[in-house]
Amino acid sequence: MAITDWPQCERPREKLLERGAEALSDAELLALFLRVGIKGKTAVDLARELLGQFGSLTRLCNASATEFASVPGMGLAKYAQLQAVMELARRALCEQMSGGDVFDTPTTVRDWLRLRIGNLPHEVFCVLLLDARNRLIESVELFRGTLTQTSVYPREVVKLALAHNAAAVIFAHNHPSGASEPSSADELLTRTLKDALALVDVRVLDHFIVTAWSAPLSFSERGLI
Predict the structure, then answer these.
(1) Phi and psi at residue 177, in whole multiples of 5°?
(2) If DSSP codes are grouped into helix, strand and coil, which group holds residue 104?
(3) Which of 207, 180, 173 minimizes the C-alpha distance to 193?
């Protein structure tokens, strides 16, 4: 049965317009993105199959072009559209952080970090540079690889903060393994960087560990900063 034959209250588009996007399931939201199904399958059927094949919405959104295009009914055009949607979400969240105190919107910061680095297959260390009102100036990926105390040089972090006239910073790095607990190396590096930045009057507000499957862990909330 085609979606147009469904009761109006059950059609994804009408449901969204009447009750809001949050009322839709992952499959229904994905069906609206797909717009049409394939022979013998509605867009909702196809969306459910996609979610089943990839295991989750997160894995689907972060699939490679080859993986995505290999699914019947998909292709590089749809892949490009999906990546555009993901990038729009990242930029919208970044605008929110640039426009006001990042600690007024902690959920926004966490969501942006998960979209930015949560699904990378390699570990990265990022510095969010903030002005005196805690607004985002810029986010810089400073290091890529396994994080140790000697991976990120305090001198480079200090130079970066001074070059952007930052009053404060937030650190973030991802754990591709999915484990969100900080290691002893994570804690030691954070203390070392905090001490170095204190010498030039730049505050370290937080350090987040980001994974694809859980909310980013905050060192500040754990009492580690």
Answers:
(1) -70, -20
(2) helix
(3) 207
Cα–Cα distance measured from residue 197 to residue 210, given in angstroms and rounded to the nearest whole number: 23
Residue 7 is predicted with a pLDDT of 64
Q: C-alpha 11: how far from its chain's center?
A: 29
- Cα gap 141→24, rounded to integer Å: 35
| The predicted structure's pLDDT at residue 129 | 95
Query: What's the whole-number mean pLDDT along residues 99-122?
Result: 79
> Could you give the angle at the alpha carbon of 127 between the alpha carbons of 201 and 101, nearest 5°?
70
Per the CB < 8 A criterion, the answer to whether 169 and 129 are in contact is: yes
pLDDT mean over 105-112: 80
Residues of the chain with pLDDT > 90, as a percent, come to 29
Computed on alpha carbons and rounded to an integer, the radius of gyration of the chain in Å comes to 21
DSSP of 143-164: EESS--TTTS-HHHHHHHHHHT
8 A C-beta contact, residue 142 and residue 125: yes
124-130 and 136-144: which strand pairing? Answer: antiparallel
HEC readout, 75-98:
CHHHHHHHHHHHHHHHHHHHHHHH
Phi–psi pair at 164, nearest 5 degrees:
-100, 5
pLDDT, tens digit (0-9, with 9 covering 90-100), for 139-162: 999 888 765 544 788 999 999 999
Instruction: Using the predicted structure, report yes or no on whether residue 211 has a pLDDT greater than 70.
Output: yes
